[in-house]
Write a structure and sequence with these properties.
Number of strands: 9
Distance between the termini: 40 Å
CATH topology of the largest domain: Rossmann fold
Strand content: 15-25%
CATH class of the largest domain: Alpha Beta
Strand order of the largest sheet: 1-4-3-2-5-6
CATH superfamily of the largest domain: HUPs
Order of helices and strands: EHEHEHEHHHEHEHHHEEE
CATH architecture of the largest domain: 3-Layer(aba) Sandwich
Mean pLDDT: 98
Low-confidence stretches: none
Structural class: alpha/beta
Number of domains: 2
């Protein structure tokens, strides 16, 4: 497994692979890898000749009061997991390698970020769109795999890729959960034992709504109210949003008459967790 720390080094290797006719699959991550990330690597490996994993805690997608400095990191362990998974190369630059002196070029979308996480994290998706655009230009992948837990991020990246004509196939990987239902996330490491129990309210709320929809309930206001009760019944919880929306546009809906995305963002203690399901 090769390790590249500079954009020029990674890009040169990618160009070499391209000349050899190799299909490159990219899995962008911020590190502190878990089984969810590893499942994305498996998807990439099934559709490409070789897999590149980027490990980069991207500063431009963090707001001033967010957890950039505290974000969990363990590069040595991450590299070992990538090696075990048969990854061809890991791209792990420093922020100064990605955003050089006098950096001033950013990518933003007009509509999709104005929903869900974008409302409480106003700079987040500009940072995501910018770093993904840069990764596509550096790694030159034929396909890239992103987790469906970050549903809005995946929607933004699909739109970005289409709008800017990147020759990259975007693939989504299903949410991977712990045995008790908690969606896997690097930020789960922040949770205390008591908060870890409370965090199950997200998956419990999704299961509850799935059951109600199966029974015939279609009124979003009623589903939101019952969801709020489930979440706030657990200690240390604070709701950022409970949203029911169109999976394509992320516009809010009042009733379930077709495919609808239910998305949650909840603070458990100081840790912000997200989860979702399409009904």
């Amino acid at each position: 497994m090769e390790i590249y720390t500079t954009p020029t080094g990674m890009q040169a290797q990618s160009l070499n692979w391209k000349r050899q006719g190799k299909r490159i699959g990219l899995v962008p991550t911020m590190g502190f890898l878990h089984e969810g990330h590893l499942s994305l690597m498996d998807i990439a490996a099934a559709h490409a000749d070789l897999v590149v994993v980027s490990i980069f805690v991207n500063p431009t997608q963090f707001g001033p009061s967010e957890d950039l400095e505290a974000y969990p990191r363990n590069l040595e362990r991450d590299l070992a997991l990538c090696r075990e998974r048969g990854v061809a190369a890991v791209f792990t630059p420093e922020p100064s390698d990605v955003y050089g002196p006098e950096y001033q070029s950013y990518v933003s979308l007009e509509k999709l970020p104005n929903h869900l996480c974008g409302l409480s994290r106003p700079v987040h998706f500009r940072g995501v769109a910018t770093v993904v655009s840069k990764l596509f230009n550096i790694v030159l992948p034929d396909l890239a795999v992103f987790g469906e837990k970050d549903f809005q991020q995946l929607a933004v990246i699909r739109r970005l890729t289409a709008d800017l004509n990147f020759p990259v196939r975007i693939m989504g990987g299903p949410i991977v959960r712990e045995a008790d239902g908690l969606a896997m996330s690097s930020r789960n490491a922040y949770l205390s034992p008591e908060e870890r129990v409370s965090a199950l309210c997200l998956s419990m709320a999704l299961k509850h709504v799935a059951s109600e929809v199966e029974k015939g309930e279609r009124d979003v206001a009623l589903l939101k109210a019952s969801t709020e009760k489930i979440i706030l019944s657990r200690p240390h919880t604070e709701i950022d949003y409970i949203a029911f929306c169109d999976p394509q546009t992320l516009e809010a809906v009042d009733s379930i008459g077709g495919p609808v995305l239910m998305a949650l963002a909840v603070k458990v203690g100081s840790t912000r967790l997200i989860d979702n399901q399409v009904f």
